[in-house]
Design brief:
- By secondary structure, the chain is an alpha/beta fold.
- Strands 1-2-3 form a 3-stranded parallel beta sheet, covered by helices on one side.
- α5 links the parallel β2 and β3.
- The mean pLDDT is 87.
- It is 37% helix and 16% strand.
């Protein structure tokens, strides 16, 4: 797989709600046969668009929003956490997930 890192300069593209219409979170959960999730990992979370959508479906959910970009993690902390405190941003190091 090619190592592509999304540029934070294109943040609006990542945060476009049309992405949720193309791949609805409810469809993903239905296909995975997940009905009452408590914890989820959003790998390559970007702006946490999908993290927020999953929490909107499952308010009890805690989402670990992982991204390799420090800019994206900072954006999540500033723009998302005040409204979605159950999203936990995690900075990845070389695509290693520091969950112990």
């Amino acid at each position: 797989m090619e190592n592509k890192i999304f540029s934070p300069q294109h943040l609006l593209k990542l945060n476009n709600p049309l992405r949720l219409q193309i791949t609805p979170p409810s469809f993903l959960m239905e296909k995975a046969k997940i009905t009452h999730p408590r914890t989820m990992l959003d790998f390559g979370a970007g702006t946490a668009l999908f993290s927020k959508a999953f929490i909107d479906l499952f308010p009890q959910l805690t989402v670990y929003a992982c991204d390799i970009s420090s800019e994206m993690i900072a954006w999540i902390k500033q723009e998302v956490i005040p409204t979605y405190p159950s999203i936990i941003p995690i900075k990845l190091a070389d695509f290693h997930i520091p969950l112990h």
